[in-house]
Amino acid sequence: MRLKDKIAVVTASTRGIGAAIAETFAREGAKVYLAARSAERAKIMIDRLTKEGCFVSFVYNDALKQETYKSMIEEIVEKEGRLDILVNNFGTSNADKDLDIQSTEYAEFLKTLDLNIGSVFLASQAVIPHMAKNGGGSIINISSVGGSVPDISQIGYGTSKAAINYLTKLIATQTARDNIRCNAVLPGMTATDAVMQNLTQNFQDFFLKHTPIKRMGTPDNIAQAVLYFASDESSFTTGQIMEVSGGFGMPTPIFGDMIELKNRR
């Protein structure tokens, strides 16, 4: 029960990595708010976790409506008196339009930056005064290895995640005096429903070819890293950018080819 009696909110938390984080928090004793657009989708999780004895509630948040970040935070604080943990999990990219530097329209590029960076900025800006007033808190941003390793596509997504990595360090620096910590978790390829449904097997195989731990991550792998940053176990840790990617991008760029050559011998 590493989060016993903590109040937490996780954005985009009704499926995938966000859902795994919310479930992990709830089972570790936190009262968790699922921040999402669909109360109906959230209810499925709430009903299941409530039967397990967990405390889970819904709070409305729509990434396309900037004002809902502030209203989300204020609603929770009004109900609970405080908010101890914020997980900025929302992230988006239109793979059909977010392409390379030559093919991506500027408006699409700005839209991706606005949604992804804005989600972290607005939620963090809204929660910091409340955390400071109550003696501290933990903000965890879900970024991506795509913000560390340049790609041949998704220029908006990669740029936005790189900005989130830097924003994490800025928030950590500017709020440490109020005992607020801010860290980021950077997933690699993770076996969410969206990944399994939208990425071809060939692409998955190619990605894993360059991953030393030769498998996809699971949402639970990411959730466990986030749990560390949310818990008091990381009370002296802030401004850290933790890749949870099986080592993707770490070794020599010809790693995958060298392994294949070695295996042929």
UniProtKB/TrEMBL annotation:
Highest taxon of source: Bacteria
Protein name from the UniProt record: SDR family oxidoreductase
PANTHER family: 3-OXOACYL-(ACYL-CARRIER-PROTEIN) REDUCTASE, 3-OXOACYL-[ACYL-CARRIER-PROTEIN] REDUCTASE FABG
NCBIfam families per record: PRK07231.1 (NF005559)
This protein's UniProt keywords: Lipid metabolism, Oxidoreductase, Steroid metabolism
Organism from which the protein derives: Sellimonas intestinalis
UniProt family annotation: Belongs to the short-chain dehydrogenases/reductases (SDR) family.
Entry-linked Gene3D superfamilies: NAD(P)-binding Rossmann-like Domain (3.40.50.720)
Xref: Pfam families: adh_short_C2
Entry's Gene Ontology BP terms: bile acid metabolic process
GO molecular function, one term: oxidoreductase activity
